[in-house]
Amino acid sequence: MSGAVTKRDSDSQLSSRDDATTADFDTPEDRKLVRKIDLRLIPILTLLYLLSFLDRTNIGNARIIGLAADLNLSPPGYNTSLALYFVAYVIFEVPANIILKRFDPQIWLPTLTLVWGVVSVCQGLVTNQAGLFGIRFLLGVTEAGLFPGVIYVFSVYYRRSERSWRVAIFFGGAALAGAFGGILAYAIAKMEGIGGKRGWQWIFILEGLLTIAVSFLAYFVVPTWSHKAKFLTESERSRLLARLKSDSDAANHEKFEWSYVRQAWTDHLCWAYALLFHGFAFVLYSLSLFLPTIIAGLGFKNWQAQLMTVPPNTLAALSIWTAVWVSSRYNVRAPVIIGAAAIAIIGYIILLTAKTPGAQYVGVHFAAAGVYTGNALLLSWPGENVSGQTKRAVAVAMQITIGDMGAIAGVLIYRPNFAAHQFRKPHIIAIGYLVFGALVAAYLWFWMARENRRRDHILSQSTDEKVHEKKDYATPEVIRAGDRDIHYRYHV
Question: CATH for 26-226+265-484, among 1.10.260.40, 1.25.40.80, 3.30.750.200, 1.20.1250.20?
Answer without folding.
Answer: 1.20.1250.20
